[in-house]
Amino acid sequence: MRNFTYFNPVKIVFGKGSIASLSRLLPGNTKLMIIYGGGSIKKNGVYDQVTQALSGREWVEFSGIESNPEYETCKKALEMVKSENVDFLLAIGGGSVIDATKFIAAASMAGDEDTWKIMTGEYRIKAALPFGTILTLPGTGSEMNNGSVISRRATKEKLPFMNNRVFPQFSILDPETTYSLPKIQIANGIADAYVHVVEQYLTYPEHAPLQDRQSEGILLTLMEEAKKILKSPRDYDARANIMWCAANALNGLVACGVAQDWTTHMIGHELTAHFGLDHAQSLTIMLPALLRHQKENKEAKLIQYAKRIFRIDGEDKTALTDKAIDDTETFFKSLGLKTRLSECGITLKDTAFIPEKMCRAGFKFGEKGRIGIKELEEILDLAK
Prior knowledge:
Largest sheet: 6 strands, parallel
Structural class: alpha/beta
Radius of gyration: 20 Å
Strand order of the largest sheet: 1-8-5-4-2-3
Order of helices and strands: EHEHHEHEHHEEEEHHHHHHHHH
Shape: globular
CATH class of the largest domain: Mainly Alpha
Helix content: 40-55%
């Protein structure tokens, strides 16, 4: 196992009715801004619960955060933060709203800097406004980590950043807030959390059996609960388990002391930025292709994955790895998600620019830095 430092300061308040605890979680004498997306929180009762909990407090609101949060929209929110002298933010929604809030929190304290430099790494975050979250769409894990991904429409870029100053102070997770979600959003969230774990688990052995078992526990639980929730959408326990799995998939715990990949996500970001694919949909297309391309490099862990997750027997290594990848793709299809670029009307010609763009600075991807332009071209070919 590698050396590591683990830090996660997020207070989690979990369970039905937990939005009522908001008032005691917020610091006193603050000017609050709530941030949310397209307005679904006003239809499902969450907005009413929040306003009731904020009774007697001074607050303003900003709406319109996109499903892939856009830099241009975040800048409008930033202007309101400054004009209204806001000193605490509250994100209400899924990972996109939370990611946007993290960016706004950091950008609010960046002075006269070009705030896009936060995304490119040219500006080092020194401070951020404090914020909390109320999660209504599980999947990204943003409610319990220090990462954010923001898109810039003008340049068709989608970039991530991470900084310990943008951990939420608290996150409220009430599974009942997810009852009104469309089936596709539930499926996307399950797939997103699943791929998060795979990116940290399907690399190579690091003599970290606890982290392996933690990862496998999340994957198995997601698969088991997915069947229940798709059959019975108002199954509270299934919703609760999926919500907690998603948080644990990317709160840093299963990443401790082990190698990580993230190539699937980086290709996925390009697909989303240029073709508007749902984030999770880009992952379910690219993960099987990446695993097929990298199955020799990932052989030991793929065999472990085959035996422990899909209960595949046998000693033929090739058969085990191939079947595990096929079963992964079948699981994604069972969620109603696509697994090929062609299913989205995207051709290899359309994606030809991606490998060079990703490797423009000489960077190589994968847990051992073995994936460059040629390999990315081959992976995209496998996803066609």
